[in-house]
Amino acid sequence: MAKMYHKEKSIQIKSSASALYNNLGVLRIAPRCLTYFTVVHANVVNMVSASWDGLNYSHRQLQSKEGSMATSSSLIMQAAWCVLPSRDLLVLTSQKGIQMYESDGSIMVYWHALDTPETPTAKAVFARGIAAVRENYICVGVSSGSVLVFDVPSKGSNITLSEVLEEHKEAITDMASECSGSLECIADLVSADDSGLLCMWKSGDDFQLLNKIPGFDTSCSSVKLWKGTVIAGYGTGQIRLYEGVTGILHAEVNAHARWIYSLDIAPFTGLLLSAAEDSWVRVWHLTLTPETNSVEIEHMYNECITDTQICGAKFCDGDGYAFAVTGYDLSEIIRYTQV
Amino acid sequence: MRSGPTGHYVTSWGSTEASCSAFLAKGMSQRTLPLLIINLGGEMLYILDQRLRAQDERDDKTQRVMNDIAAALFSKTFLEEILKPQDVFTHRALRTVLTRIAHASIMRLNPASMDKLYDLMTMAFKYQILLCTRPRDLLLITFNHTDGIKGLVKDSHNLVNQINEAQRQLIELYTPLSDGEFQLIRHTLLVLFQDMQTRVSIFLEEKIQNPNGRFVLSTSGPVPYGYEVPGSIRWFTKGREVRRTVFPSGENYTRALNDASFNLSGDRVTHLGTNMYTKASPGDSQPSDTSNSTRKQKQVEYAPNLLATEELNFLAKLMGGMEVQKLSNADAGFKVNLLTLEQEDEGICVVEGAEQQSPKVINIQAIQDQLVNTELARIAGEFSKDGSPTERHLNKGDDLLAMMDDM
User: What's the superkingdom here (chain A) (predicted)?
Assistant: First the structure.
């Protein structure tokens, strides 16, 4: 197979990546020729700002919060940027609640505490699954299956909980909003849970449930929504492509030999990135033909990260020209760019 | 740290040690502790069994030690406590509990030996957690351990029954959990073992660990039972498969032939959790070196740390029920020395039972200050080598301490 990508210099981070789904956040800041990355380590988020010329790196660490305390030992489940038309926010979800920061991590603008039981129950309590939806919503999933919808003003900290969506019965694993930029797509958001159930939503003052796509008894750990197509990665190492609104299954890819941890899509080109515990990162190409309502997925490239259980993989730009990878116990962000 | 103009500031510290997950008792899953204790306890029994045989102790003495430790590990009251939903223990608390379990026998471990033992146990279990092909295999690994322990104490029918009863409780508790919930348990364990990279001789020799401490992850072999081998794409129209294409997966996986048994006994299929020391030579149950490749690990081992009050109370309750063996004159307690190779580069082979240099001792003064009136102070006092004055209760704890000082 022709070499599509080659390895670049890795970015060192202050502490290693924890084994968590979707454990890499990327925010590209074109006007400043910078890219931000986030990697979760236990109760800390390592943030790196990398200049495109490869000469400047600066680091910051954010910590989980609890109650009135600024710092906590509670574990962080996920960190991701929410890109809204008016502003970008960095969202952290933990066992105790949801923290929202300005995109450079400098100021916390909002804190939402989860209801935690007085005595430990058998069921774990945490927030996980983060997506920015349309103009002004940030949606966050919870271990109970609830999806919290936050209304975000164009500036300031007057963020409010607008709605709680209760369709899932198992813990939310990941969520994704329509990323093609097209306003024609009906579905705005897909939420996934530990049973593999996928829910399709339309945003608004009241979010509307468009469809429920049942799972097949296996957790869906990572999900993307592009041009109305749901791309879902599962614990079985499989990727499924569904038409979101109807639930029609287009294709099933036997992609990996182990649990999939991360999927990402480059919206301008339709390149898809998948990464799993089996140490492999794979690049695919999706083409959608709306006239025939068909989806094509073509395998493009493989890369093996030796002796590493990959926990995060994301494209660094909308074309898929570069991607970055994190692995459990690794204190670096490994990068690849197209040849 | 860059500061913003107004609003809350986020504290970001210069030292990454403060974030070391091993100090924290937090876990995502509340169902992790039983698997943690039983698997670590199992590894401990395998290693002690191998070391005692290597030290050429009389068979009946060794058997007594094995039986006593297994009985403590699987004691009804102890299991009842750890089976309740709760966070995982810190490494310090784990080490304390496991040492107490070991000292339910007439065998004694000095703190340095316990450090080595703990390194071996944790690296072995970390290896098993990482390599299991699907999260549910954690249960199979646990059952391999219980099967293995039953083998070590097979002549004691009561003990075998006790272990079977424990296994039944595990089956009842864990069988209903989903794969996602098992993965959460696995992630909780992986946070606890994060950054631990002690090199272990037997792992290095068998090429399952790299010289840099990272484990070797193979990209071939069977996929989990029921999984598909990567390399194909199925296309559907109206719910029916209409086409199949292939792609190069770059690897060499095969389908799994049999499913494993999750019952009281049966073929577990995986070898993870079985006793890797049974055919090993005496030198195998040794970590390669005392210095770990990460600074963080040293911090965990030797910096004074205060156990949280809740944890202390819980441990006191847990261990109050565990009787530490009184050593009568007839029984002179014997020591297990895991320090046969003091300095690897000097190649010195230390004579069994002797202690030529004072090993690094965990500073538990800080802990003792906190634990003044609790049962735990008495227990912790048994591990103190410097005999520093604290408000220890004068009772059987002192007999044991005196005995250890004499060794």
Answer: Eukaryota
Report the gap between the CA of B284 and the closest CA in chain A (Å): 23
Radius of gyration of chain A (CA): 18
Residue B99 in domain: yes
Paired tokens of B83? 């089976």
pLDDT in the model for residue B325: 61
Which residue in A120, A170, A329 is closest to B180 by CB distance? A170
Environment class of B153 (CB within 10 Å of its CB; exposed 0-12, middle 13-18, buried 19+)? buried
Q: Which CATH superfamily is domain A5-114+124-338 in?
A: YVTN repeat-like/Quinoprotein amine dehydrogenase (2.130.10.10)
Over residues B214-244, the pLDDT tens digits come to: 999 988 899 999 899 999 999 999 889 999 9
Residues in A closer than 8 angstroms to B195, CB to CB, are: 15-16, 329
Question: Residue A252 and residue B31: Cβ atoms within 8 Å?
Answer: no
Q: B180 and A123 in contact by Cβ < 8 A?
A: no
Express each pLDDT in B144-198 by its tens digit: 999 999 999 999 999 999 999 999 999 999 999 999 999 999 999 999 999 999 9
